[in-house]
Amino acid sequence: MLTPLRLEHNERDLDAWSSSVNHIHATRGFAGDPWPNEPMTLERNARDLQAHEDDFAHRRGFTYSVLSEAGDEVIGCVYIYPSPKDDVEADVRSWVRATRAALDGPLYATVCEWLRAEWPFSTFDYEPRDIARARDIGWPTQPGVDPPATS
After folding, report:
1. Per-residue pLDDT reduced to its tens digit, 29-75
2. Fewest beta carbons less than 10 Å away: which of 46, 112, 131, 137?
3. Cα–Cα distance between 100 and 23 in angstroms, integer?
């Protein structure tokens, strides 16, 4: 389940990524990225989450928490921001926590379908993943979250 990243996710978000630093650094789209880095406090993570929440509110970028079906565990995040490339509209990245690594491909497939069906982009960069297992494990094909209004 995707939901806009909020401050209320702070503890669960910090737990998800801080338990998966090496896994995230090995995830396509994060190679060479200095984030995530440690040490991280709840206060510093809250500032990061507030910046993402502000970007969402001001339509500068859109960050979503990937939550378990019950909504009690942060599985990962999806980031949708303007691309620095002139010929690409959006830069998309995602990660899942190490204990949910099998969901990386299915999340990628779901987000790609969602971007093509519901977002106003004709082009976006999103590092490809192995999506063969997406349907094998019963991952939903639509995250069920509407993109921000375009007005």
Report:
1. 998 888 877 678 999 999 999 999 999 999 999 999 999 988 789 99
2. 137
3. 10
pLDDT of 88-136, one tens digit each? 999 999 999 999 999 999 999 999 999 999 999 999 999 998 765 544 5
Q: How many residues does the chain have?
A: 151
Peptide bond into 4 cis (omega under 30): no
Residue 138 to residue 116: CA distance in whole angstroms: 21
Residue given tokens 């999103």 in the structure block: 126
CA 151 – CA 139 distance, rounded (Å): 31
Structure tokens at 37: 């880095």
Torsion of CA 131, 103, 79, 20, to 10 degrees: -130
Element (H, E) at 125: strand 124-126
One-letter identity of residue 97: R
Alpha carbon 33 to its chain centroid, in Å, reads 15
pTM: 0.86
More confident residue, 150 or 51: 51
CA distances in angstroms from 139 to 32, 108, 109, 128, 135, listed in the order given: 29, 11, 9, 17, 6
Given a contact cutoff of 8 angstroms between Cβ atoms, the answer to whether 5 and 53 are in contact is: yes
